[in-house]
Amino acid sequence: MTTSIGFIGLGTMGYAMAANLLNKGFDVTVYNRTAAKAEQLRELGAAVAASPADAARGRSVVITMVSNDDSIRDVYDGEQGIFSAVSEGTVIVDSSTISPDLARRLAVDATSRGAIFLDAPVTGSKPAAEAGMLVFMVGGSAETALAIEPVLLAMGRKVIPMGPSGSGAVAKLAHNTVVGINTAALMEGFAIAAKGGIEGSSFLELIQSGGAASRAAELKGGKLLEQDYSVQFALELMLKDLRLSSVLSDKLGVPTPLLEASKSLYQVGDAAGYGQLDLSAVAKVYEQWIGRAIGEKKQ
After folding, report:
1. pLDDT tens sequence across 135-162
2. Which residue ranges does the record assign to the 6-phosphogluconate dehydrogenase NADP-binding domain (predicted)?
3. All domains of the chain, ordered by start, with CATH?
């Protein structure tokens, strides 16, 4: 492989994505604020950079995967940020979930430096990242997305062009609105069933066999019954995404009553201390309200 990649942000998703690039034979330089995560990838063949600028310098593709708008600004605009070192012709891919306005601004700033920026967030939580089965939704040049498709498909299974800069970010917020609402709906249904004396495993079997079948039930149902809230996608990050989606929908003039109700529910979960658990830990809020565990066997 001749493509050289700088990868910045090695959290739950980014670490697995960078590992897949390394396993597919790409030349990868990584940077992470917590250096220990970067050092773990050195064993797979990664070079470790001391700053985002060092990770970007001389690379043909730079990928960022960080948690929020503020972190993105630090990574791109800081004294040792990407824009201080990016080369003309470099393709910059941001796979974080950020506001569309910020994505569009980064595209303009990249263009002014002779680089090309794609907002390319992903769908698929930790298991999909580890398996290289992510789906990339891309805002920006479709021609550029096609040119770097081998890089993206080393981490995922599909690349979907969404339109001009910012479109990937819009699509991701709309998508995660559905995910957040679906997960909340699943937990609410389980709470009704549990309070009514229905055994959790029987209710899950019904969900998966009927019109309520969903990806949320497939991913979260069994873990819910086991009270396993290990992180596939953190509750605090879902809340962050729903807040961004709420701002976007206000700008677009789209009424979103289900979004607002779900956002409030995740806010309760975050305030209760569940933010760093999986988003399905919103079930614990319902457990407090109904006074029993969801999935608990009938006595």
Report:
1. 999 999 999 999 999 999 999 999 999 9
2. 4-163
3. 4-165 (3.40.50.720), 171-290 (1.10.1040.10)
